[in-house]
């Protein structure tokens, strides 16, 4: 099976979530199931069914995280010398050539992408256009609204 890139921060976040699910959520849910069993008839026991459903969701999330971590190629950007080129894990300031509007994105793995915190997937059109380019270069990005030119203002290793 092929490996998928993931930042060190993304890997740590998943490991923390896994630790929380296994160390805190599992025991809580097991306790809730045990308490609900004591209430009697399981066929009409809403607390029991809710706890079992929650247990299923938590176990599915645990399996999902474990699979992601086992297939991850963790890349620590701080160990790579800064060259001014856009690579996986770098944070990039870009400016729309036409409007002058600046935005900042960190290029991360598919599972870490979250546009609300300015993290874009390495497989997104913007990231694909930026990878391998240097500060000062202009790149063309095909968007649903048409072709947009961006200038790479700054590349940061954070």
Sketch the major β-sheet. Answer: 5 strands, mixed
Structural class call reads: alpha/beta
Task: Report, as a whole number of angstroms, the end-to-end distance.
Answer: 30 Å
Shape: elongated
SSE sequence, one letter per element: EHHEEEEHEE
Q: Give a count of the beta strands, DSSP E runs of length 2 or more.
A: 7
Strand residue percentage: 25-35%
Overview of this structure, please?
This protein is α/β, with parallel strands linked by helices and 158 residues long. The chain contains three helices and seven strands, in the order βααββββαββ. Strands 5-4-3-7-6 form a five-stranded mixed β-sheet. The protein has a two-stranded parallel ribbon with strand order 1-2. A hairpin with a 2-residue loop joins β6 and β7. α1 packs antiparallel against α2. The chain is elongated. The two termini are 30 Å apart. The mean pLDDT is 90.
Set down the secondary structure blueprint.
Elements: E1 4-7, H1 8-38, H2 46-70, E2 72-75, E3 91-96, E4 102-108, E5 119-121, H3 125-130, E6 138-143, E7 146-156
Helix pairs in contact: 1-2
Short note summarizing the structure:
By secondary structure, the chain is α/β, with parallel strands linked by helices. 39% of the residues lie in helices and 26% in strands.
């Amino acid at each position: 099976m092929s490996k998928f890139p993931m930042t060190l921060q993304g890997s740590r976040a998943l490991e923390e979530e896994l630790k929380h699910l296994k160390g805190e959520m599992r025991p809580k849910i097991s306790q809730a199931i045990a308490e609900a069993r004591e209430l009697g008839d399981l066929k009409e026991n809403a607390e029991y069914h809710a706890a079992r459903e929650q247990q299923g969701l938590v176990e599915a999330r645990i399996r999902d995280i474990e699979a992601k971590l086992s297939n991850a190629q963790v890349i620590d950007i701080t160990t790579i010398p800064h060259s001014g080129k856009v690579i996986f894990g770098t944070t990039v300031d870009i400016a729309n050539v036409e409007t002058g509007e600046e935005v900042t994105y960190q290029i991360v793995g598919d599972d870490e992408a979250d546009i609300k915190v300015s993290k874009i997937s390495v497989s997104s059109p913007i990231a694909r256009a930026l990878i391998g380019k240097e500060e000062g270069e202009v790149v063309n990005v095909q968007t649903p609204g048409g072709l947009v030119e961006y200038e790479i203002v700054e590349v940061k290793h954070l």
